[in-house]
Amino acid sequence: xxxxxxxxxxxxxxxxxxxxxxxxxxxxxxxxxxxxxxxxxxxxxxxxxxxxxxxxxxxxxxxxxxxxxxxxxxxxxxxxxxxxxxxxxxxxxxxxxxxxxxxxxxxxxxxxxxxxxxxxxxxxxxxxxxxxxxxxxxxxxxxxxxxxxxxxxxxxxxxxxxxxxxxxxxxxxxxxxxxxxxxxxxxxxxxxxxxxxxxxxxxxxxxxxxxxxxxxxxxxxxxxxxxxxxxxxxxxxxxxxxxxxxxxxxxxxxxxxxxxxxxxxxxxxxxxxxxxxxxxxxxxxxxxxxxxxxxxxxxxxxxxxxxxxxxxxxxxxxxxxxxxxxxxxxxxxxxxxxxxxxxxxxxxxxxxxxxxxxxxxxxxxxxxxxxxxxxxxxxxxxxxxxxxxxxxxxxxxxxxxxxxxxxxxxxxxxxxxxxxxxxxxxxxxxxxxxxxxxxxxxxxxxxxxxxxxxxxxxxxxxxxxxxxxxxxxxxxxxxxxxxxxxxxxxxxxxxxxxxxxxxxxxxxxxxxxxxxxxxxxxxxxxxxxxxxxxxxxxxxxxxxxxxxxxxxxxxxxxxxxxxxxxxxxxxxxxxxxxxxxxxxxxxxxxxxxxxxxxxxxxxxxxxxxxxxxxxxxxxxx
Length: 621
Fold this sequence. Notes:
By secondary structure, this protein is an alpha/beta fold. The protein contains 14 helices and twelve strands.
């Protein structure tokens, strides 16, 4: 309840923070946009002021330069009294007048634009009048010269150059003085105009700067708040990320520890049970040594330990992390079914059940799919059928359909399953408590069966009638089966193998060694070792052809022994076969070590399995 309340508070806080962030972002956007435009206005005003000052200064500098040039040439003329010098002086006057006329035109355009904008134009008109006054004086000087020349022609008494010189000197001195005064006054007024413009524009810029400063400050506050929100999110996201990472690491360690524990359990429990099953199988074959009562005891022991092994396998398969991928290869489905039927014959015999299987003689039997999963599916369903049957027949029918479907049909004549129970039988740990005598087991067999069927993209169905029996039907898609199994090879038992072969059995479990030694009792060159280190000592002294080794052993494991053998070229002739209750563990070790066994024998195995693996390893036909 407290956690739920805390979660709701945290959720409300996150929602409020998101809303606040969104509002602040919008406010920040508008403030920033307004501030940016204000900044552009200030920048434009500043540029205009600078441009105005620059143009005004350039105009004054140009006027002074042109005036000084004309004045300098006039001084030269006044000293030399040379008509050529006066002509140069006149050229400078014309240039000066051209500049003034240009400024007059520009000023008139400015006044016209300002009148259209209803701006104050008094100062501009005043400056224009100065320019016009200068232009007027320059015009009068030029006109005076022309008038004087005309009068000299009409009045010969003025024709002497000295007379004209004195008049020109006097007149031009007076005009140049006036122009100089006008320029000084113009310069003074322009400076005053600059000061007025600076003062007015500075006030506007100062006011806009204050607004800009306030908006910038608000933007900084919004940015600070947004940064605080981001830091808050970052802090708590980092906190929960670290917490989640720690939990994941902890969960991974637990999963690895759990996997290691179950792997150890698989080795420590499966190994002796598998050996006991094998030994009891050997004892069953020695029929001449027992009377009927002793044989029944052996059969009962075999059935009990087989059932116990199946329950343990179900538990370990459920709790051990398995490779989800499928291991496809070609195998003989008829051979698999016959092995499973033979495995359950003793159990069926004790319950007075008939156990049989059927396969179309014309149907191909070599199929391509996951052999381990198919074997476990059939084994679990037959075991389940025997468990819930007291009489009648348990049959296994195998069909290879033309539609590339492997169809497995397990039928019994047992107690049947009620309709209301059928929907639950594939659930984990579910047991149908129809009768107390059938309530044994953990309810994992059918759950694991359906899981295996699903992993092969298949489907499983059930039909059942109370007191008449049950039919389980499994359909698994497979590639088209192309042929039947080849004719059996010449080796039917281990004793058929070449007599001169030498064997080395490596296992730290005494029961396993005893079980395997029974198979090679007739071979004179059979050796045994308790770990990989002892095995290396033996092969260094004896010629060994085949090593059959367990994986999990002290001092030196089976995979470590394999690496040592493959590293030494003098041992290239030795074939190494691994025995393990966990086929995936062997394959994983092979990948890790980049070193592969010549054969893998999965526990539990019998003489037929052992013979088949050896023949395939030695490539014997």
